[in-house]
Structure formats: structure tokens, C-alpha cells
Design goal:
The protein has a four-stranded mixed sheet with strand order 14-9-8-17. It has a four-stranded antiparallel sheet with strand order 10-11-13-12, covered by helices on one side. The chain is α+β, with helices and mostly antiparallel strands. Strand 22 (about 550-555) and strand 23 form a beta hairpin.
């Protein structure tokens, strides 16, 4: 006969059974003893072997064989891996296995094969199995119904929080950090005395996780949330200190790392970041760790600030990492998300049940023994008659029945009298028997008081917790910090005036402004950046260390970095390649560099392309930049982004072209657009012409347009000579371009107190005052600003801030 079933319903039923099996039987620990089935079976198998802490070690293979043969019918490697972890001091806060041999390392090295290692239970593990033979917990059949195994261990230690647990089941996971035993005992004692206490009250005792690898944690909102709700996230930060070396050099010593972090991978990550110059100032890195502890040494270069390097380690490496707390455990045979109090309540309930069942067992045994002793006492009182009665009996059965009839004894009492040895008839033995009987009566009264009086039961639990704390507590290893923000790197770096130089091939550097002194107009300049034959300076700008450096590429993307993160170099240094700092595509280079201190809501970025397109976009849209950069502007075919400026809508713009034309229009003619917009036409270009500069006209005292040509000529023209036109027109003449002047390099708004810096293709830099440049009309050629050879040319210039000029004068 064939039964028809719904495959959908069958799949639902089967998958539900499978998921429950994984949750209950493998991945999620029991809230009472904090153990998963495999760990519980490992410990029970060792208990059955008598493999306690005060016995000789046994081969791991022997233990694993017993576990998989009797209780856990799975792979031996899975059982051995669980056994190994229970013996690792860097994995367990208080190991439950005492191992002898190679059990792996914090570097990720695997343990030796099970045939080479030996194990026995730790002393603390004995508390997990205490009184298990006194009917304290339920037993269930093993997988083949030939043996019995405990469904839970009668542990005295709150193991779920003590050693923590992690596991992934079907549709759920658990991740519980380890804690300090002394703090847990204090919390349990407080809960025992004041059951109505809150989670916050318990947090005065259980202050936070205590990891075996030490380190520090932030005891902030994430920890409070985890203890209150069962879910939260904390940050773990390794311990790094600074040591003095000879001749004023310093070293950073890492002595503690976050929990579950592979030390070797940490060292490799640090080395990679040093090679990529993400971490600056380190001359040597080595791992000096040994069996006495972790010691990772970073030798610093002369003049390096140790705090900056330490903060870089926390920012870029797993030396600071997050730990997601998810306190899920099996309670009443179902998974449940628990907070701190509920976990401790479940444990205390488990201890009450264990103690009550142990007491009932002890009471029964004591009453049975007292019953026997009562019969022996009667026999001793009538010893002559008892002996005579026994001698008169033909068989033991007849003697037993005669004793039962004569003295009203039970069958067990009569048998005990018959089994009694003659030496018990001595006065000394008689006194011992009577003393044992009196002690049993006292124990019986005590056991009954435990079962009948909750206060006595509470006292037993309190005594056990106090003894556990005194016997096994070790000092806290993990420090709890209320503020883990650390030192702000910018607080350690002076907000000095600097010059950012970027070459066409992508080499960037940061140079102090005082390396460039002011010169007279017509000077030859001083040596600037040293580049290769096929390279030249592409962009440079004056800034301060605390500003943001916004790098807009010719392909319309934007990258953001702090100025102080640019590697510092001398005036003639080549610098570091931008690819070491930012991800750049092939044939992509930085077209314009812009410095900004804050992203203000009422300001915009003004985009200008070489084909004369313009765009206005809110600066706030560029505040959050991914590490790979963001799209700042959409470009049409064969067009490139030329320049970006920070503006407001009440300002005006002037676009200057390479062939000497220009157009002035109001910024309000350009409506604000999104980041990915292409923009609108700013100027109608004549054949072969392209935009050389985008200038912002602002009411800042700068009322002249300075234009510079590639042959080193320049001129100042009153901005009033440029009439305001409608955006998109052909414009007016800006500079008379001839073979003597060469093409226009760029234009900028200046005032009489300003200074500019010129860069030449021969990598010369000249700094000069604007008031040395003669004011002239729109259609003039200008005056000579810098002299150079026939093959040399001006390739760029920038305006210096007045604040920088004032600092230099002081």
C-alpha cells in the first residue's frame, strides 16, 4: 500500500526537525552548564575513565575513542578539535582540560595528532561533575540505547558566561564572551540575596567580559545593551606600550591582542601596511613572542610620534576589533535570547534543582543506613540472646526469620545482624557504631531542613559559590575602559602651513611652507620637486595639516584624505605615489586639488571641464567618501574635469580659455545638481580652444584677475573690465595670446597683498608678491614673471592664503 504525502509539508517537517537537531544537539549550548553536547560527552567520558586532575594523563586518542564509540557518533577530528580547544589557555578563560603536548598556538598552528598528546580533566572540571552519581541530573540513552549519558552536568560553575560560547545553527547563532569567575560569583551571590535586582544592579558586580588574551574593552552603550537585551557590540583593543631605546629612539611593544585574533595574521597585516606606507615612521617590525607571552616590536624612526603610529595600528589593523555579543542559549529545550540576569537566574535554578536532588539522594541513603544501625544496636543490646538464637537455628534463613520474629526487625536489619563480624562486639566497635548512628540522625535532620526550608537551601548555594570563588578565581585580565576614543591624531600634529605637490605621474608629497622664501619678480626661482624626465608637476596647493585634501581626477571621480596623511618630503623630494594612498584607475590622474576644513551646508562645489561645461553641487553630498572614491561628475566623450572650486550662489564665475578668451556670469545661472550630473554649458568655445581656468569672483578684497601664460608672462586686470554676460556665450578677450606669451596657463582672483607660487616644467618654483605685477587692460600681454630657458614653460601656479603670508612675516 502506498501512502500519498505532500512533498511541501514533508520538506517543512524534515527541515524543522533537522534545524532543531542542529540547534539543540550541536551548535547552541545549554544555559545550565554552558556546554554543547560534544563538550559534555568529552567530560563525561573522562569521568567514566577516572581521568581526573589528580590522576595520570591518558592519550587523547583514548578519550576521543571512548567519546565517539559510546556517546558521540561523529568524526574523530571534530571531537579532537573540541577537546583541543578546551585545553587552550588562549581560547578558554578557565580551561576544562589539562593537556600535555602540542595543543596549537595563538599563531594558528594546529595541534599535534591525538596519538601524540595526552589529557586529563582540569581541577575546575571536577566541579562540573561533582555529585553526578547522586541522581542530581537526568540521564538518557546514548545513540544506540546501550548506555546512559547525562542530559546536563550538575556543574557548580556558571560556565556559559565563564568560558563563553560561539556557534552557528540553522537561522540563528550565538556568541557569548568569557567572564571572570570571581565577578560571576559576586553577581550570583547578590542575585541570591536580592532576586528582584535589575540587570544594572548586577553590572556593578559583573563588570564586563574577561578574555583569556587580556586586552581592553570599551564598557559603553554596546556592553550595556548586550547585558540588558542579550545583543550588543563591544570594541576590543590590544595593549600597546612605548619603550625607550638607545640614542632617543622609541619602540612600540604589543603585549596583548584581541580575543580569537591570529597573531601571525596581525603581524602580516602590520607589515603590509608599513610596506604600503599606510603606517608611517616604522623602521623595523619583529615578533619576539615566546612561551612567556606576546611581544610584537615596532622600532620607530627618529622623530616619529609613537601615539600616531599606535592610533594608526588601531585604525587600520585588527589590533582594535569589534566583538558582537549574542547571548543565545538552549533553555527548557528551546533556543532563547537571554540577558545577564536571566542567564544567572537559570544557573541558580539549576543549582537549586541539583542540590535538592542530591539532598534527597543523601537523605535516602542516610535513612537506609540508620535503619541498619538501629537493627545492629538492638542486636548489641541483646547480644547473648541473639547469639543463642543463631546457634539454635539450622539454616541462615531460619536464623533471619527467628530474629525478625523475636525483635520485630526488618529483613534487611536481620541480614545485617547475620553479616556482622565478631570484632564489632568489642566495646570500642560498639561505641563507633553508636557514634555513627548519632551522626546519621543529625545529617538526616540537616537534609530534611534543606528540603523544607528555602533559607537553608539558599545558605548551601551561598557556601558553594563562596568556596568556588575562593578556590578558583584568578585576577581579571581584560581592562574595562569607559572611553576608548583614544588620542586624536590631529591633536598630536601641529596645524602647520604646508604645500601639497602632485606630479603628472601621480607622485605626491607634503612640504612645510617655510621651505619656500619670497623672491622678487623676474627671479629664477628655487628647485622644487625632483621628477623623472617624462614626469612633471600636475597640481599643487597651499594648505594646513588639519584640512581635508579633496582630489578630483580628470575622469570625474573624487578622493578624500587629510592633509597630514600625505607623506612629508623635502622641497626636492619626489614624494610617494598616489596609488599607495588612493585607488586610481589606468590613465586617471588628479586634475585639481582642493583643501577644505569643513563641509558647510550652504556652500557648493563649482565644476569646470575643459570643454566648457559647468556644474554646481552641494558640498554636503561629498562628505561621506568611500575608500575607493565617489563619482563627482559625469563627463561627455573626450572631455576631462579641469577644476573644482568651493562657492556660494551669490558669487560670480569667470572661465578663461587657453587662446585668451573669457566669460563672466553669475553663479545663480547654474542650478544646483546631483553628484552624477553632467552639468550645463559655461562658455561656447572657438575651434581648437579649451578652458584653462575657472575663477570665482567673491567680495573678499580680491578685485583683480591675474592671468599667467606658459612663457612666464602675467598681468593683473580689474574685474570690472569683464562685463557680466549670460552663461553659455562666447565671452570677451582676456589676454592677447602670441608666440611670445604662449597659451594661457590659468587665471586667479588676487588682491594687492597676495602672493603666488609658480611652477615650471623644469621643476622650478618661484614665490612672488602680486603687487610687483603691473595692472593692465584685458587685451595686453603682461610682464615677465619668471625667466627660464627656451624649452621651459610655466605649468601651474597657486595663490597663497593671507594667513600664511602673515605667519611668514612674523
Amino acid at each position: 500500500m502506498i501512502d500519498k504525502i505532500s512533498i511541501e509539508e514533508e520538506l517543512k517537517k524534515s527541515y524543522l526537525e533537522y534545524s532543531l537537531s542542529v540547534i539543540i544537539g550541536r551548535a547552541i549550548p545549554d544555559v545550565r552548564d554552558g556546554l554543547k553536547p560534544v563538550h559534555r560527552r568529552i567530560m563525561f567520558a573522562q569521568h567514566e575513565l577516572g581521568n581526573s586532575y589528580n590522576r595520570a594523563y591518558k592519550k587523547s586518542a583514548r578519550v576521543v575513542g571512548d567519546v565517539i564509540g559510546k556517546y558521540h557518533p561523529h568524526g574523530d577530528s571534530a571531537v579532537y578539535d573540541a577537546l583541543v580547544r578546551m585545553a587552550q589557555e588562549f581560547s578558554m578563560r578557565d580551561p576544562l582540560i589539562d593537556g600535555q603536548g602540542n595543543f596549537g598556538s595563538i599563531d594558528g598552528d594546529a595541534a599535534a595528532a591525538m596519538r601524540y598528546t595526552e589529557v586529563r580533566m582540569s581541577r575546575l572540571a571536577g566541579e562540573f561533575l561533582a555529585d553526578i552519581d547522586k541522581e542530581t541530573v537526568d540521564f538518557r540513552p546514548n545513540y544506540d540505547n546501550t548506555l546512559q549519558e547525562p542530559s546536563v552536568l550538575p556543574t557548580k560553575a556558571p560556565n556559559l558566561l565563564l568560558n563563553g560560547s560561539s556557534g552557528i545553527a540553522v537561522g540563528m547563532a550565538t556568541n557569548i564572551p568569557p567572564h571572570n569567575l570571581g565577578e560571576l560569583c559576586d553577581g550570583l551571590l547578590h542575585l541570591l540575596d536580592t532576586p528582584e535586582c535589575s540587570v544594572d544592579d548586577l553590572m556593578a558586580y559583573v563588570k564586563g567580559p574577561d578574555f583569556p588574551t587580556g586586552a581592553s574593552i570599551y564598557g559603553g552603550k554596546g556592553l550595556i545593551e548586550a547585558y540588558r537585551t542579550g545583543r550588543g557590540s563591544i570594541k576590543i583593543r590590544g595593549t600597546a606600550t612605548v619603550e625607550e631605546r638607545k640614542k632617543g629612539y622609541e619602540s612600540i611593544i604589543i603585549t596583548e591582542i584581541p580575543y580569537a585574533l591570529n597573531k601571525s595574521s596581525l603581524v602580516e597585516k602590520i607589515a603590509a601596511l608599513i610596506n604600503d606606507r599606510k603606517i608611517e615612521g616604522v623602521s623595523d617590525l619583529r615578533d619576539e613572542s615566546d612561551r612567556n607571552g606576546i611581544r610584537i616590536v615596532l622600532d620607530l624612526k627618529k622623530g616619529s610620534i609613537a601615539e600616531i603610529v599606535i592610533n594608526a595600528l588601531y585604525k587600520f589593523t585588527p589590533l582594535e576589533t569589534s566583538f558582537g555579543i549574542n547571548m543565545l542559549a538552549v533553555a527548557h529545550n528551546r533556543p532563547e535570547l537571554l540577558n545577564l540576569k536571566s542567564i544567572l537566574v537559570y544557573f541558580l535554578d539549576h543549582r537549586r534543582e541539583v542540590i535538592l536532588r542530591r539532598t534527597r539522594f543523601n537523605l535516602r541513603k542516610a535513612e537506609e543506613r540508620a535503619h541498619i544501625l538501629e537493627g545492629l544496636r538492638i542486636a548489641l543490646d541483646f547480644i547473648d540472646e541473639v547469639v543463642a538464637l543463631i546457634r539454635a537455628s539450622k539454616t541462615p534463613l531460619e536464623a533471619k526469620e527467628a530474629l525478625m520474629a523475636r525483635f520485630e526487625l526488618s529483613e534487611r536489619q536481620s541480614q545485617a545482624i547475620l553479616d556482622m563480624r565478631l570484632q564489632r562486639l568489642t566495646n570500642l566497635e560498639r561505641e563507633k557504631l553508636l557514634e555513627e548512628y548519632r551522626e546519621l540522625l543529625m545529617k538526616i535532620e540537616y537534609f530534611k531542613s534543606i528540603l523544607e526550608n528555602p533559607q537553608v537551601l539558599r545558605g548551601v548555594i551561598r557556601d558553594e559559590l563562596t568556596e568556588l570563588k575562593e578556590k578558583y578565581t584568578t585576577p581579571r585580565r581584560t581592562a574595562i575602559l569607559q572611553d576608548l576614543e583614544g588620542i586624536d591624531i590631529e591633536d598630536l600634529i601641529p596645524d602647520d602651513d604646508v604645500v601639497i605637490t602632485l606630479s603628472r605621474r601621480g607622485y605626491v608629497k607634503r612640504t612645510r611652507m617655510d621651505n619656500y622664501h619670497q623672491q622678487k619678480r623676474g627671479g629664477k626661482g628655487i628647485a622644487g620637486v625632483s621628477t623623472s624626465v617624462d614626469d612633471s608637476v600636475q597640481a599643487f596647493c597651499a594648505a594646513t595639516n588639519h584640512k581635508f585634501l579633496l582630489l578630483f581626477t580628470n575622469q570625474g571621480r573624487m578622493h578624500q584624505i587629510k592633509v597630514h596623511q600625505i607623506p612629508e618630503g623635502s622641497r626636492t623630494a619626489k614624494g610617494a605615489h598616489i596609488a599607495n594612498l588612493l585607488p586610481m584607475e589606468k590613465d586617471e590622474y588628479v586634475a585639481t586639488a582642493l583643501t577644505l576644513r569643513d563641509f558647510e551646508p550652504d556652500r557648493y562645489f563649482f565644476f569646470v571641464t575643459k570643454k566648457g561645461m559647468v556644474k554646481l553641487t552641494h558640498t554636503e553630498l561629498f562628505k561621506n567618501v568611500r575608500s575607493t572614491g565617489i563619482k563627482a561628475c559625469t563627463l561627455k566623450d573626450e572631455d576631462e574635469l579641469l577644476v573644482v572650486r568651493e562657492v556660494t550662489q551669490d558669487q560670480e564665475a569667470i572661465l578663461a580659455t587657453e587662446h585668451g578668451h573669457s566669460i563672466r556670469f553669475q553663479m545663480s545661472d547654474v542650478r544646483p545638481m546631483g553628484r552624477a550630473a553632467a552639468g550645463v554649458r559655461g562658455i561656447a568655445l572657438r575651434g581648437g580652444d579649451s578652458v584653462a581656468a575657472g575663477v570665482v569672483v567673491a567680495n573678499s578684497g580680491r578685485d583683480q584677475l591675474l592671468t599667467v601664460s606658459e612663457r612666464g608672462l602675467g598681468k593683473r586686470t580689474e574685474v570690472g573690465n569683464y562685463r557680466v554676460q549670460t552663461r553659455g556665450g562666447r565671452g570677451v578677450i582676456n589676454m592677447r595670446v602670441t608666440p611670445k606669451t604662449g597659451k594661457v596657463v590659468g587665471s586667479v582672483m588676487v588682491g594687492s597683498n597676495d602672493e603666488i607660487m609658480l611652477l615650471t616644467s623644469a621643476n622650478k618654483i618661484i614665490r612672488l608678491a602680486v603687487n610687483e605685477i603691473r595692472t593692465s587692460g584685458r587685451s595686453t600681454q603682461g610682464v615677465t614673471l619668471v625667466r627660464f630657458g627656451d624649452d621651459d614653460a610655466v605649468i601651474g601656479f597657486d595663490l597663497l592664503d593671507a594667513a600664511i603670508i602673515d605667519d611668514d612675516e612674523e
